[in-house]
């Protein structure tokens, strides 16, 4: 009996919410939840500073939209899908959160977006790398904003093969993200006429890379590609330097490097490494201006994820303003209708699978002589047009794309 | 070129050497654990954190005061050792008469605190430390390029390991230590300050971890969580060797380095798991580890 | 023994006291039950379910640590095995009802528990802890490598389904009462075990194993049965948790999870029936609150401090200290 009553009242309540949401902003407040790793391995690329970027966005929009206040809540996902799932559930079911931002580890993102889909709220993924997030795991309730594994492979691998690096040794972190990156790289290399000499998968995380670097050296491949992330990548790069990998004529290609990683390595160790990035703080005047503001607040330069969080939040809030509602589908449609031209992207647009398509950049780490200060780390070698960089819709397995 | 299981012998010998070098780290770390457990019966789950502190200390001393590698090699373990003595005196002493498990839980909590605080200060991206000038470059052994620094690591680690073993098993100080921890009342009666001895022993075990940390600083990225993952591997090494057996810890450490190195060639995915497989097998055959005394 | 009890008045008063304390205990359980029934109308039900799942996990763990004196450092393996089995079955076979999937998950972890137990049960103290840790690491590796677990990404979107084909568990309240029922079942099993003659033998083993052996008890057999039941209940907790969250992930198999359940049990009170429940509620709530507070990046530090304080000052845990306090002041 009790259960029935509760069910009935819940049904009525949700029907009410649904109808009012069409017309205006639910609870007369826009509630944004920031979910990211605040204390673990991915802390530096998004983490507490990502929350600062989000708050900057809210302030720049004026703290309110159409008279409705904007409220930001945040939580540490502890890199656990469990925690992500229960946090997001509570946010949407109890706290009336309308949009979830941040989202770093791919397991966390997938768990969160499932719940956002069930409850029809919006998620904007800025931290995750896996291209599956807008492919087999796509939902009508999230947008993948900053980058994914497809352009990482595409940008770096293509450039390196075209420069003559036609035989590859791939060192892969043995988990979903690494496998995805490895697969994408393999495709690009063979499509451009290169060959894969050897693939080795290392446990995640690995402490000592000397054994793998030695295997790479004896493989005779011209290019040693690192399909891993974070401290695995920086450790592998350090060890490669120690064992004279590049001196013996091999090229090192790191597929996923964040500004914070390169900063940690220093230009001495990282110089000359080619990488693909979605954004760089020093790439144009808009980016520089925003980065200066960010640095005043945090003391560090922003990563592409920080910039993406800012840009996507401003874009979201503007869409809420235009649509006059915070109902997820209406806002998402509005976001898709509006091109993105700001400090993060020029001419960026959101596709039906939720992928934000924008130009990507092939960068090279500066030499100690070129680098003017500790954050002067990249020179942009080439701009990869967005439509070339990302997986074309014709290859998509996303349920929202008619193929 | 001659091959073993499809792997050229030259490559294999390179891997064996690298395995041995990693084993030297395991030996140093497990030695500290074995000293602490063998003499004090403390299960030191903060050992990884002390290893990290050694490395971090080295980097911070260099960045702030310009302390060079050689000074850091002495100074960092000393600083960490003093911290260890304080921890023993203020915390571990309070539970000396409780079940060993409580020392595990206490030090585990301690590790969480140390790592957590430093993560908030230094982040997790890692700090860099340059390889000392004299050890830059390396030598081509024919089958592999051996960086001088790695050669130094194995020499330094082995010297410290053998020295420690000698001190505890063969010197008068060592015999006091062993006697003091086995029958503290009697030793007290002989006029030996046992509580001080206990504090110093813990400090010494912790110093060994910090020393390994200093050795690691130039070749691994130094982060506040660098000790968290190595911890359970080192524990496995100690258990395989026989808890508390000093010689067992050193030999097993080196052997596990080699086994892990070979796994990295033949089945790299399993390289972080193989030690646990060895541990299960060893404990089934020898319940007290390879060098442990039957309980 | 029982026949002579009524003979002396002193014995009688002891019996009365025992009855009174039994009654009080019953009242306490009753109060807990009533609170649990009302709770979902006050507190967010999914959060409560999380607590119940971890409470069951901790109760299962405490059966070993608290009543047999065995510290297992590999209990995550059972939690994960229950979870993965249930999750995989439910997402592969769409007609399957949740109770069958849970049963399958529990069976899988029971079998695994039997395997672990046979290998580990003869080891004592730290060696027991380390061999269970090692075995759990092997299980973790298996789950990382297997494709059916979805690797690092995990299994997502597992349907909650209809209990017995009738009750739709997609509704949080229905799900909650189901989880509560499962929890009470698990709690009752442990309660029954601990207070049975079998449980008394376990306690005897914990206190003095050689003596128990010399009295003719097959000590290893007793320990093994306790281990397997503990594994089964941990698996049950994992299975139900998977259905609640509709996902199964590697986190459950990681050794940190094995450490977390030690923390819960320790905080609540080792060797008390309610301790693990209170401990789980405390730790889950604390993590939840901290993760969402401004102190988000200090979670680990605060947990570490609690660990240290527990060991130094409240070794008996919340319930244990409460019992001590109660005995000292009211008896």
Textual characterization of the structure:
The complex is a heterotrimer of chains A (403), B (295) and C (331). Chain A has 403 residues and is α/β, with parallel strands linked by helices. Chain A has helices spanning 2-23, 47-61, 81-93, 106-119, 149-162, 176-191, 210-219, 230-242, 259-270, 285-298, 304-323, 328-337, 386-389, and strands at 29-36, 64-65, 68-76, 99-102, 122-125, 142-144, 167-173, 195-202, 223-227, 251-254, 274-277, 340-341, 346-350, 356-357, 360-365, 378-384. A six-stranded mixed beta sheet of chain A has the order 2-3-1-4-5-6, with helices on both faces. In chain A, strands 8-7-9-10 form a four-stranded parallel beta sheet, with helices on both faces. A three-stranded antiparallel beta sheet of chain A has the order 11-15-16. The longest helix of chain A is centred in the first third of the chain and has 22 residues, at 2-23. Chain A is globular, with a radius of gyration of 22 Å. The model of chain A is unreliable at 15-22 (pLDDT under 50). Chain B has eleven helices and four strands, in the order E-E-H-H-H-H-E-E-H-H-H-H-H-H-H. Chain B has a two-stranded antiparallel ribbon with strand order 1-2. The longest helix of chain C has 34 residues, at 9-42. In chain C, 53% of the residues are buried. Chain C has a domain at 43-252. Classes of the chains: A alpha/beta (403), B mainly alpha (295), C mainly alpha (331). Chains B and C meet through helix 4, helix 9 and helix 11 of B and helix 6, helix 11 and helix 13 of C.
Shape of chain B: globular
Low-confidence stretches of chain C: 1-6
Largest interface: A-B, 40 and 44 residues
Give the biggest sheet of chain C.
2 strands, antiparallel
Order of helices and strands of chain C: HHHHHHEEHHHHHHHH
Quick one: CATH class of chain B? Mainly Alpha
* Percentage of residues assigned to helices of chain C: over 70%
- Which fold name corresponds to the CATH topology of chain B? ABC transporter involved in vitamin B12 uptake, BtuC
Number of helices of chain C: 14
Specify the oligomeric state.
heterotrimer
Summarize the amount of helix of chain B as a percent range: over 70%
Structure annotation, total helices of chain B: 11
Average per-residue pLDDT of chain C, rounded, comes to 88
Protein name (chain B): LIV-I protein H
Membrane topology (chain B): Multi-pass membrane protein
GO cellular component, one term (chain B): plasma membrane
Keywords (chain B): Amino-acid transport, Cell membrane, Membrane, Transmembrane, Transmembrane helix, Transport
């Amino acid at each position: 009996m009790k259960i029935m009553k509760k069910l009935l009242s819940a049904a009525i309540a949700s029907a009410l919410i649904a109808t009012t949401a069409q017309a205006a902003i639910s609870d007369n407040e826009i509630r944004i939840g920031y979910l990211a790793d605040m204390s673990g391995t991915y802390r530096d690329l998004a983490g507490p500073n990502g929350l600062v970027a989000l708050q900057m966005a809210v302030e720049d929009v004026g703290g309110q939209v159409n008279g409705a206040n904007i409220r930001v809540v945040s939580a540490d996902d502890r890199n656990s899908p469990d925690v992500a799932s229960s946090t997001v559930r509570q946010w949407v079911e109890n706290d009336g959160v309308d949009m979830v931002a941040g989202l770093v580890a791919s397991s966390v993102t997938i768990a969160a977006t499932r719940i956002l889909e069930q409850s029809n709220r919006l998620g904007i993924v800025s931290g995750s790398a896996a291209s599956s997030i807008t492919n087999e795991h796509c939902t009508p309730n999230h947008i993948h904003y900053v980058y994914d594994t497809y352009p990482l492979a595409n940008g770096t691998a293509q450039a390196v093969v075209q420069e003559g690096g036609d035989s590859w040794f791939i060192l892969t972190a043995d988990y979903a993200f690494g496998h995805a990156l490895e697969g994408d790289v393999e495709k690009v290399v063979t499509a451009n006429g290169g060959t894969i000499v050897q693939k080795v998968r290392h446990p995640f995380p690995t402490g000592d890379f000397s054994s793998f670097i030695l295997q790479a050296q004896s493989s005779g491949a011209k290019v040693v590609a690192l399909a891993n992330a974070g401290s695995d990548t920086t450790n592998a790069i350090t060890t490669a330097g120690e064992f004279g990998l590049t001196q013996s004529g091999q090229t090192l290609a790191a597929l996923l490097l964040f500004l914070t990683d390169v900063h940690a390595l220093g230009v001495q160790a990282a110089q000359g490494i080619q990488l693909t990035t979605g954004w760089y703080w020093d790439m144009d005047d808009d980016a520089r201006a925003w980065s200066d503001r960010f640095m005043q607040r945090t003391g560090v330069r922003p990563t592409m994820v920080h910039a993406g969080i800012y840009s996507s939040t401003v874009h979201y809030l503007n869409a809420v303003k235009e649509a006059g509602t915070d109902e997820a589908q209406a806002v998402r449609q509005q976001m898709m209708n509006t091109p993105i031209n700001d400090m993060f992207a020029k001419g960026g647009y959101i596709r039906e699978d939720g992928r934000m398509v924008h130009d990507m950049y092939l960068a090279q780490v500066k030499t100690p002589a070129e680098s003017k200060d500790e954050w002067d780390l990249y020179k942009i070698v080439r701009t990869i047009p967005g439509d070339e960089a990302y997986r074309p819709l014709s290859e998509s397995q996303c349920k929202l794309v008619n193929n | 070129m001659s091959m073993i299981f499809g792997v050229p012998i030259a490559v294999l010998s390179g891997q064996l050497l690298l395995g041995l070098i990693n084993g030297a780290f395991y030996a140093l770390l497990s030695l500290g654990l074995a000293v602490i457990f063998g003499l004090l019966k403390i299960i030191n789950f903060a050992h990884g954190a002390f290893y990290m502190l050694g490395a971090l200390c080295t980097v911070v001393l260099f960045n702030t005061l310009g302390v060079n590698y050689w000074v850091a090699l002495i100074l960092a373990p000393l600083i960490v050792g003093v911290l260890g003595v304080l921890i023993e005196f203020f915390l571990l002493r309070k539970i000396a008469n409780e079940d060993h498990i409580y020392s595990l839980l206490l030090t585990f909590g301690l590790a969480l605190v140390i790592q957590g605080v430093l993560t908030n200060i230094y982040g997790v991206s890692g700090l860099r430390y340059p390889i000392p000038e004299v050890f830059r470059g390396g030598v081509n052994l024919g089958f592999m390029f051996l960086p001088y620094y790695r050669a130094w690591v194995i020499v330094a680690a082995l010297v410290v390991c053998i020295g420690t073993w000698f001190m505890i098993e063969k010197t008068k100080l060592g015999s006091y230590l062993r006697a003091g921890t086995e029958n503290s009342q009697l030793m007290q009666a002989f006029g030996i300050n046992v509580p001080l001895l206990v504090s110093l022993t813990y400090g010494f075990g912790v110093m060994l971890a910090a020393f390994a940390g200093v050795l690691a600083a130039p070749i691994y990225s130094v982060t506040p969580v660098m000790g968290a993952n190595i911890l359970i591997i080192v524990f496995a090494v100690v258990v395989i060797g026989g808890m508390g057996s000093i010689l067992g810890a050193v030999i097993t450490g080196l052997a596990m380095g080699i086994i892990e190195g070979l796994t990295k060639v033949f089945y790299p995915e399993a390289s972080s798991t193989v030690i646990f497989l060895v541990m299960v097998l060893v404990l089934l055959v020898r319940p007290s580890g390879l060098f442990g005394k039957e309980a | 023994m029982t026949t002579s009890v009524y003979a002396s008045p002193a014995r009688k008063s002891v019996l009365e006291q025992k009855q009174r304390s039994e009654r009080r205990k019953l009242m306490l359980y009753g109060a807990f039950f009533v609170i649990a029934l009302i709770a979902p109308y006050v507190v967010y039900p999914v959060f409560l379910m999380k607590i119940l799942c971890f409470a069951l996990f901790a109760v299962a763990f405490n059966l070993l640590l608290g009543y047999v004196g065995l510290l297992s450092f590999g209990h995550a393996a059972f939690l994960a095995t229950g979870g993965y089995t249930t999750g995989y079955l439910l997402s592969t076979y769409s007609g399957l009802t949740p109770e069958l999937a849970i049963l399958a998950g529990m069976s899988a972890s029971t079998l695994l528990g039997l395997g672990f137990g046979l290998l580990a049960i003869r080891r004592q103290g730290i060696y027991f802890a380390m061999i269970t840790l090692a075995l759990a690491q092997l299980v973790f590796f298996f789950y990382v490598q297997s494709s059916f677990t979805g690797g690092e990404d995990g299994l997502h979107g597992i349907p909650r389904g209809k209990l017995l084909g009738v009750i739709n568990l997609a509704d949080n309240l229905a799900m909650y009462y189901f989880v509560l029922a499962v929890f009470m079942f698990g709690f009752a099993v442990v309660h029954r075990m601990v207070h049975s003659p079998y449980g008394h033998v376990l306690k005897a083993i914990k206190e003095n194993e050689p003596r128990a052996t010399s009295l003719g008890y097959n000590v290893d057999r007793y320990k093994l049965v306790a281990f397997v039941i503990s594994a089964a209940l941990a698996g049950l907790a994992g299975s139900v948790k998977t259905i609640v969250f509709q996902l199964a992930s590697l986190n459950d198999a990681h050794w940190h999870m094995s450490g977390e359940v030690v923390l819960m049990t320790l905080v609540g009170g080792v060797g008390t029936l309610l301790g693990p429940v209170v401990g789980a509620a405390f730790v889950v709530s604390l993590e939840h609150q901290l993760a969402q507070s401004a102190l988000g990046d200090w979670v680990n530090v605060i947990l570490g401090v609690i660990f240290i304080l527990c060991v130094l000052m409240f070794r008996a845990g919340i319930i244990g200290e409460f019992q001590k306090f109660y005995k000292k002041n009211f008896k």
